[in-house]
Amino acid sequence: MRAFYRTHILTALALFTGSSAARAESEASVKAAYLFNFAKLVEWPSSAFSSGKAPLVIGVMGREAVGDELARACASATAGGHPVEVRRVSMSEVRDCHLVYVPESERGDGAIAAAQGAPVLVVGEGENFARRGGALAFVKDSGTLKFDANPAAAARNGLTVSAKLLRVARTVVPK
């Protein structure tokens, strides 16, 4: 509950004071919330987990604030019956994750290639990330953070993206 209030207070600060630090932290909080919900709205094959109690691993590339926000938000969370574990990862660890977030400052195409054929949901940033083969991509649309979806990219990795998630995507990249 404390995190809920903290997030909304920071959002209000960003809106009313114009503080770039508050805006950045607020955007990181929003991205973290999206990532957690993505984990809840994607189906992984049972073979993606060593057991029914194995964690769902969300990897964050780079030193983005999103990783810290996500770790706080997922401290005791579950997704699909699995405890959520957040890790900072490098390119060589992409296949050790179930979901990997690649900020714009990192090599998105490298992560897409590294995850190819493995049950990894690759989430990145930018207008063309989903078109280049990422499963989900954060985009800014009229100053609002939204996302594009490429369910075919997820399916190539053995994942099923929920229709609920696709309905709220800004754009669904055609197959």
Architecture blueprint of SSEs:
Blueprint: H1 2-17, H2 20-40, E1 42-43, E2 56-61, H3 65-73, E3 78-79, E4 82-89, E5 99-101, H4 108-115, E6 121-125, E7 136-141, E8 144-149, H5 151-156, E9 160-161, H6 163-168, E10 171-172
Parallel strand pairs: 2-4, 2-5, 5-6, 6-7, 8-10
Antiparallel strand pairs: 1-9, 3-4, 7-8
Helix pairs in contact: 1-2, 2-3
Please tell me about this protein's structure.
The protein has 175 residues and is α/β, with parallel strands linked by helices. 38% of the residues lie in helices and 24% in strands. It is built from 6 helices and 10 strands. The strands form 2 sheets. Strands 3-4-2-5-6-7-8-10 form an 8-stranded mixed β-sheet, sandwiched between helices. Helix 1 (2-17) packs across helix 2 and helix 2 packs across helix 3 (65-73). The radius of gyration is 15 Å and the shape is globular. The model is unreliable at 1-22 (pLDDT under 50).
* Backbone shape: globular
Q: State the helical fraction.
A: 25-40%
Major β-sheet annotation: 8 strands, mixed
N-to-C order of helices and strands: HHEEHEEEHEEEHEHE
pLDDT < 50 stretches: 1-22
> DSSP strand (E) fraction?
15-25%
How is the largest sheet built, in terms of strand order? 3-4-2-5-6-7-8-10
Number of strands: 10
Structural class comes to alpha/beta
Report the mean per-residue pLDDT as an integer.
Answer: 87
- State the end-to-end distance: 40 Å
Oligomer: single chain
**Number of distinct helices:** 6
Q: What's this entry about, in short?
A:
Helices cover 38% and strands 24% of the residues.
